[in-house]
């Protein structure tokens, strides 16, 4: 995509528009949201009590049955979507109007596998309420406190999927309750899809959506998954990088050789791998392979959006233990706009106790490439492969034959897998982005502004979710960043639960 | 050592002299040597039956007792040299003459540890006789064949230390027997020292020699250890490289980081290690650190000697499975004259099944440096360390502190151990070198010429052996190159045994 003057202008206009709230959502008052939250905690704890690792289809079905009932009793029409025994759930709110925009809300009902012994509670499937003690530790308190009296927003519910991603599902149900209690109705046509294999990388979502294209037809997709910005300010995310994997093996002599008799004589594959990797990046961490970054075009509007993200990079560097960062972008957000080329593992012969005086027979590097919507896995992989060949390497499949060895000085294999998930990006000035911005600022105001993240560095299956319907999307994360997602002691901050209900109420009531 | 015109002239004269046999040794006829060999096989097999891993001092003492008796009955005066329970043996032939040169013959009685299960015979300590079958395998034959009838020079005795280094000890005893049977006497004063810890790197030889300086006083040292040139032609070796070890660790973030969120941002230590290693060598395998090779001075005489070594590099490259070699020297021998810098192991995070999408927290390289007499471990280690610092690294001991991490962009540790054994070199025109050349050509003629190797690539404890007495030395290997030294199925070719007796007879009878 070239930054044509027209597109630049559109971006500038969009950015200007984002500062003006044209139409406001009905803002749900904090005390009412709080009351609605309290009324929903019983269901929330019940839902968290049902194991949901999608490796156990029976558990997935129990979740679907429970959720189908929860959506139905709020008036939704539901449909279990077959998926090899691990069904997904579709739900549609009644009162669809032909002249209104239809928004598909995506969440997922499955959770990461658990290692119960690592959890500081009886079971990851038995949610508990905790408060932070004076010593900084989380201590359990009676969960009856959730249902009577004042609830401290800093308390947290601990349990698998409390944040990722059953929390947002319950917030949606509670937001609907709030809307109904006030006698209101959504301002958009509401469809919901609950994925059952998100934690496995959503291998089936595209297939299921393809099979139900008409049912899922919509004007925009809103994804409620992942954490809010570390400041816990309302957050909008417009894309995420994809991932690809590569393995690079440089071959040396046929067998490991005595380094006394052959050091200086038989070329060392670890040295050659080092030289090859070094040829791919400069000393500031920038990839030097021509074309690697060239598809990413960032204009002033994008840079302004990125610069506005309140990242505390001084604190971040201190936490990571680094004095300086790579110089790919001017700041953290900008760095995430570009594809990465990362050595995630490297090995040749042995290090430590088993080290031997040899010239190794091969050296290996495991790489991961983070992709962007404009620079996909196929494009980047080809660039790296061509670069390796340009350095004089003859590439083989598997291991070289004796004939290869006799013929080619430099031998390597390069195995490339683009299966790590595609990148996804939606314009920061798309109708759904503007609509979500209005809903959020209508609820929380503009001081401070919501955090807008153009591209997350990590990979989530956004592309798989949106690619069938090909409509704009926005990710609206609702849970606290320090929720221990995917790990032991996953939790949700109650203040985020209440604000999540308010956010969803805002989205439901915001005219599109 | 600078190649002054005087030295150059000396070398040219020496090279010229080596082609003219001034005084000839008494050549032992092949049939007499063969008869003498046959007469000694019983003792040889007996000696091989005594285990000799120096980790078991009692076994070492049994070997010393046996050998002391063997030398004594041939007229030697012997003395067991105390060495913490693992004595060495000194033996001196009678008839010392004040006007004659004294030669100290070094061999060793200990052997490498064994893994009996890897041996294709009952026990590594039960020597057996084998012949090569039509299918190329070695098959056992009745060892009685050693004592009656014609012995095939291609037959081999298999057993631990058959070649390394009890074979040469028995050849020496048999050469003395031959000399005595003919009513002759040595032309030099003969001293013998048998090391008991050579396979552990001779940690004690210098101390023992220091304690017995007067006893061991000599004009030259001849070392019988290691294999002959692969062609099995008579071989003279004038030095060997030493070894030093280093560990280089490049530090990244404090903990491994998610490569999606931090790839492109937190500097990758594997990438940095690669860049650092790449900065040390060029694409042809030559070290680019200034001064690394500059102390090695090779003149035309040395190059002529090296070029004369009948290495079959085409076959060697085929065997190693490489199309081209590093460009350190013009040929294999020349490459071995230079120090090496070899990556013997490398690692960062995991490769293979356990690979994860992370920016690793550190990357490590295990290096070995082969040293030369002019470029010792301290000199080379300092150059590498200075080079690392010059690339912008702050070096720490152990792991960096938080303060180090906040202050320095590039952090590494460099641990250097110069304990791998020193290099040793003796002039190719030294009196002992000329004397040995004359003895060998007097026995085997000059067509083909003996193989003269200026510097072996591997490290043997020559320096430790010669550094106390500070006299010229020459290494005269006697055993076949394909003897499986240090490994299972070690063996000695009977033709080498007979020729070894002839070689030793030549040395003993060659006027110095």
TrEMBL record, chains A, B:
The Peptidase M20 dimerisation domain sits at 239-391
Report if keyword DNA-binding is assigned.
Answer: no
The alphabetized UniProt keywords are: Hydrolase, Metal-binding, Protease, Signal
Q: What is its EC number?
A: 3.5.1.18
Q: Name one Pfam family in it.
A: M20_dimer
Q: What class of enzyme is it?
A: hydrolase
Output this protein's name: Succinyl-diaminopimelate desuccinylase
Q: What broad taxonomic lineage does this protein's source fall under?
A: Bacteria, Pseudomonadati, Pseudomonadota, Betaproteobacteria, Burkholderiales
């Amino acid at each position: 995509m070239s930054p044509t003057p027209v597109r630049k202008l559109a971006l500038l206009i969009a950015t200007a528009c984002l500062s003006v709230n044209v139409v406001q959502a009905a803002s749900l008052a904090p005390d009412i949201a709080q009351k609605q939250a309290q009324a929903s905690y019983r269901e929330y704890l019940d839902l968290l009590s049902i194991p949901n690792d999608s490796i156990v289809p029976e558990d997935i079905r129990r979740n679907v049955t429970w959720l189908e009932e929860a959506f139905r009793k709020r008036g939704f029409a539901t449909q279990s979507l077959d998926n090899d025994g691990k069904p997904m759930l579709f739900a549609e709110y009644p009162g669809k109007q032909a002249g209104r925009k239809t928004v598909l809300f995506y969440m997922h009902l499955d959770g990461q596998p658990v290692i119960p012994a690592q959890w500081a509670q009886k079971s990851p499937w038995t949610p508990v309420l905790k408060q932070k003690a004076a010593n900084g530790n989380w201590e359990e308190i009676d969960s009856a406190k959730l249902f009577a009296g004042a609830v401290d927003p800093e308390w947290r519910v601990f349990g698998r999927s409390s944040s990722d991603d059953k929390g947002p599902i319950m917030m949606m149900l509670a937001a609907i309750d709030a809307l109904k209690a006030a006698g209101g109705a959504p301002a958009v046509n509401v469809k919901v899809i609950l994925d059952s294999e998100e934690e496995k990388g959503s291998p089936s979502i595209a297939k299921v959506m393809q099979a139900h294209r008409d049912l899922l037809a919509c004007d925009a997709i809103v994804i409620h998954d992942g954490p809010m910005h570390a400041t816990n300010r309302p957050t909008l995310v417009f894309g995420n990088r994809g991932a690809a994997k590569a393995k690079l093996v440089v071959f040396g002599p046929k067998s490991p050789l005595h380094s006394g008799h052959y050091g200086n004589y038989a070329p060392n594959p670890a040295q050659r791998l080092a030289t090859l990797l070094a040829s791919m990046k400069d000393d500031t961490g920038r990839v030097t392979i021509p074309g690697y970054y060239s598809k990413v075009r960032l204009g002033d509007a994008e840079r302004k959006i990125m610069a506005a993200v309140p990242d505390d990079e001084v604190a971040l560097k201190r936490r990571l233990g680094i004095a300086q960062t790579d110089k790919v972008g001017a700041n953290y957000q900008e760095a995430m706009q570009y594809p990465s080329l990362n050595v995630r593992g490297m090995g040749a012969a042995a290090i430590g106790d088993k080290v031997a005086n040899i010239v190794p027979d091969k050296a290996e590097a495991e790489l991961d490439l983070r992709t962007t919507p404009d620079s996909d896995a196929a494009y980047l992989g080809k660039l790296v492969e061509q670069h390796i060949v340009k350095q004089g390497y003859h590439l083989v499949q598997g291991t070289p034959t004796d004939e290869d060895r006799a013929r080619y000085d430099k031998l390597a294999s390069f195995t490339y897998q683009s299966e790590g998930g595609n990148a996804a990006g939606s314009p920061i000035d798309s109708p759904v982005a503007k609509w979500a911005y209005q809903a959020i600022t209508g609820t929380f105001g503009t001081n401070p502004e919501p955090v807008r993240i153009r591209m997350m560095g990590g990979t989530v299956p956004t592309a798989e979710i949106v690619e069938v319907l090909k409509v704009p999307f926005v990710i609206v994360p609702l849970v606290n960043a320090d929720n221990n997602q995917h790990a032991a002691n996953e939790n949700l901050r109650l203040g985020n639960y209440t604000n999540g209900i308010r956010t969803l109420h805002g989205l439901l009531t915001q005219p599109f």
